[in-house]
Design goal:
Length: 377
Amino acid sequence: MKILLTNFHPYYGGGHTTYLLDIYRHLNKNCNLFLACPPTSRLYKFAGEIRQENVIGIDFPGKLKELKGIIKNLKKIIGMLKKESFDLIHVNGSPDHRMIMYAKILLKSNVPVIRTIHNSLTPRTNFYTKLRRKYFTNKIIVVSDFQKKLMLNNGYREDEMTIIPNGVDTDYFHPIPPDTELREKYKLGGDDMVFVSVAGTALHKGWQLLVEAVSKLDSKLKNKIKIILAGAIPNKSVREKYIEKLNMNEQVIFTGLLPDVRKVISIADVGFVLSYKIETISFACREMMSMGKAVLVSDFAGLPENVDDGINGWLAKCLNVDSIYEKVNEIIRNIDKLDQFSVEARKKAEKEFGLKGFIDKTYLCYESTLMSDREVS
């Protein structure tokens, strides 16, 4: 089975990168995998470290002002499809899906296309998206029950979709002792409570809501809490608005982008992902739970599918600072239960989040798509 994976993100890529690297690394035992992505991307770099010869540098521009780039890269795609004769193409966003569609039209190709939806946005139902769905998509992978319900509520059919929740490597992300050097670097006291997020620092991840909630605690409690955020350091205006104005400079630490998040997860007492937009099911949440960290999540999209409230984490109302404040107080009041919460988080990760199930289901999706005699219609 010869498979082409595609992704459009030119830089970091977030969960898209994790998702595709796992497929590219672990499905190669059963498939001959190729990967097309921008040469400037983190995905291109890391995939090349796994197996460079099958990584192809292609951009996926889509705006009218990028017409020259569209033509240039479309020629590359057409040449690649002619040369390699793929059995199946697995796209991961609208820009790469669109370019594959153009190539299929020009080549009059009937190679099947699978699309993974990596966001929780309401699907568009305009003429173009209906056309792409009807004639150029054989199967849609969704990564949460929430996504499936959203799609069904917007005119999609049950037989168009399959649910394959994101998997994490539970051997790689396993409990380890707190990194002492990192604790010293961030000047963490022995009785500090440390909240960590490795979900990124875009505002839709909701980290600023936790900052605001903690700012409302009395000064004695507030001063014992540290909020550590892995990801790109926000610009000055964001820091001023969401940290400095709340007098939270001493409580909030930005690590910058990290090639390996395990050390920073190791120093957490509690993980958190408080997204209110775009999020699907969160690799970050599952990675932190896999490392034995109970996680505070918002009740947005697929996040509640990770956590059992009051057992291996906590569920707060989306975009609700008061609800987050209540959960923080609950965590503080029940600090003696954190060890048991951590054990339960790891148990759930081992039972439900492992890579094997994710990889096996993805392979079965490929196989069933190729075997199916259902034409795109």
